[in-house]
Write a structure and sequence with these properties.
Layout lengths: L1 E5 L4 H12 L3 E6 L12 E5 L5 H8 L4 E4 L12 H16 L3 E5 L17 H15 L1 H15 L4 E7 L1 E3 L8 E3 L7 E3 H10 L9 E6 L7 H9 L5 H4 L26
Parallel strand pairs: 1-2, 1-4, 2-3, 4-5, 5-6, 6-10, 7-9
Antiparallel strand pairs: 8-10
Length: about 260
């Protein structure tokens, strides 16, 4: 397929682009900084674009079979509009050019079944850290994600919303889980998230649905996760700390077997 990836220069977007190319798709990677995009390939077009600019969005969407969005911004106490306004332009461009299939990333926090006070993460995580990040640090971000979800669900497109939990790195795709209802998993590998998004291009099981995806076979160090993932803008001394799951614990699979994930209904 011909697919456009918005947010392509982010950590998940780069993985998604790489996996899509490995699966044989022709990819248009849309980024505000094409000169910094690390991938080069015959079936890859790196395009300068800004989702706040409708004209550049339309240019990227024209001629595509599907659009994949991994748009993301750091937490901020200021009003965030990237998800809702950017996705509104994507939807408008898709309607204009007759492109039907949209897969976009949101968050497990937006799921109405999400439990703010659970027990599986321990007292500190569930009673202190989790409410703090959801209700204080991430309040404006998750509010805009909900606006984005409402817009997508009310569109006339063939959409799927993918809701991961806390994102972290693994060296390969793992045996992750997917479900239409909320999964009580604390983390999702970015490689798993990218693979989950690509799966939606091959089937319509989760069309017009929001699907949760979580990684259980391997977990990150929680305090490194807070320092390197949740805050994103981290001090220089932390950048030297390698942050990925223990490779010995990851159930890796060859690329041709990536589709054999274990799912839960």
């Amino acid at each position: 397929m011909n697919v456009a990836v918005f947010g392509a220069n982010g950590p998940t977007g780069q993985l998604l682009t790489e996996q899509a190319l490995a699966d044989g798709h022709a990819v248009t990677a849309v980024t505000r900084h094409p000169e910094a995009f690390p991938l080069r390939q015959e079936r890859l077009q790196v395009m300068h674009g800004d989702v706040f600019d409708l004209a550049s969005v339309e240019q990227a969407v024209a001629g595509q079979d599907a659009v994949l969005s991994t748009l993301g911004v750091p937490y901020s106490r200021k009003t965030i509009t990237l998800y809702s306004q950017g996705t509104a332009h994507i939807v408008q461009a898709m309607n204009h050019y007759g492109v039907r299939r949209l897969v976009c990333v949101s968050s497990s926090v937006t799921d109405p079944h999400h439990r703010l006070n659970d027990t599986q993460g321990g007292f500190i995580f569930e009673k202190v850290l989790k409410p703090f990040f959801i209700l204080v640090v991430g309040r404006t971000l998750y509010a805009d994600m909900r606006r984005m979800e409402t817009l997508v669900m009310n569109s006339r497109l063939d959409w799927t919303i993918v809701r991961p939990s806390g994102l972290f790195e693994t060296p390969a795709v793992t045996h992750y889980q997917m479900a239409e209802e909320y999964i009580s998993g604390r983390f999702t590998s970015r490689a798993d998230l990218a693979d989950c998004m690509l799966q939606q291009l091959a089937n319509d099981r989760y069309m017009y649905k929001a699907v949760a995806v979580a990684t259980f076979s391997v977990q990150p160090n929680f305090f490194q996760f807070l320092g390197r993932e949740a805050f994103q803008r981290r001090p220089n001394w932390m950048k030297s700390i390698p942050f990925q799951a223990d490779k010995k614990r990851v159930a890796t699979r060859p690329a041709q077997l990536r589709r054999g994930v274990r799912q839960v209904a």
